[in-house]
Amino acid sequence: MTTEIILHYRPCENDPTQLSKIAEKVIQDFPTRPQSRFIPWFPYDGSRLPVKPKRSPPAISREAVEDVKRSLTIFEQEVNSPSYDCTVGLLEFQPRLTRRPSMLWRSLDVQAPPGQLQEPSEQGQQRKRRAWSVSLPSSQCPGEILPLSKKLQDTLKTLSLHSLYRARWTIEHTICNHQTLEDIWAKLNRIIRHNELPSCNATIQRHLSQIWVFCDIIYCEYVGNLLKKRLALTGKINLFVHKYGVIFSM
User: Fold this and answer.
1) Residue pLDDT, tens place only, 84-110
2) What number is the average pLDDT over the span 154-178?
3) DSSP β-ladder status, 210-216 and 238-241
């Protein structure tokens, strides 16, 4: 009686001596040991069931039985298929990799509001626009940060909010003072890039025509005043806190 062995190996492990040893070990009988006699943990005399179910077993409909039979038939066909090579599609078992696989990137197609369409690139495709900007951690805080105003302190005391709670300034497109939202976003990116806004990160919501600037409440008034001054905002900006809504405006 002959035994056919198919041995898959990586290109770096093509030593014939080692491969023959591996094949010999595969066809050896598995070591066995006698099993000990099973002793149940409950008294059982064979006359009745040791455990009685509380409820009767569920009734299985004929449709469910047919579904199980169809699934088993499909599974058996797949198992009995002559193609059972488990290395198909695995790069490490390929004889030679001519090139590294390229990574696929998926970009989110977001429709911009009218008048704020992105400019086409040299290849005629639309330019990818960043949607988030995060300030780098810094141990140095601006020295001109003043304590919170009494009005905001009273609000925090009423709502039992800590000064390190995160809040969000909302910049609407209606207060951009004849600037597009993309212009404001570009200026804000430069400000955050130079770490002028402590503990801030921002995102542009183009489908809402809004820019959200997140910061700690302890810096919120400093951040709000700097946003209005540097971005030349003409209207009111609102400070939003999750689960509490707008708690402050300037």
Assistant:
1) 555 566 555 555 544 444 333 333 344
2) 90
3) unpaired
> For 129-151, b where at least 16 C-beta lie within 10 A, e where not — what string?
eeeebebeeeeeeeeeeeebeee
- Reduced DSSP (H G I as helix, E B as strand, rest coil) percent helix, strand, coil of the chain, to 5: 30, 15, 55
Selection from 171, 165, 139 nearest residue 219 by Cα: 165
Of residues 8 and 162, the one with the higher pLDDT is 162
CA dist 6 and 15 (Å) reads 16
Burial degree of 63 (CB within 10 A; 0-12, 13-18, 19+): exposed
For residues 153 and 250, what is the distance between their CA atoms, to the nearest angstrom?
A: 15
Residue 71, Cβ neighbours under 10 Å: how many?
Answer: 10
32-52 pLDDT per residue, tens = 788 888 777 766 666 666 677
How many Å from the N-terminal Cα to the C-terminal Cα in the chain? Answer: 90
Q: What are phi and psi of 228, to 5 degrees?
A: -65, -35
Q: What is the pLDDT of residue 249?
A: 92
Q: What is the reported pTM?
A: 0.48
Distance set, CA 183 to CA 26, 78, 110, 190 (Å): 69, 59, 17, 11
Q: Do 173 and 210 contact (CB within 8 A), yes or no?
A: yes
Q: What are the two backbone dihedrals, phi and then psi, of residue 211, each rounded to the nearest 5 degrees?
A: -120, 130
pLDDT of residue 165 exceeding 80, the answer is yes
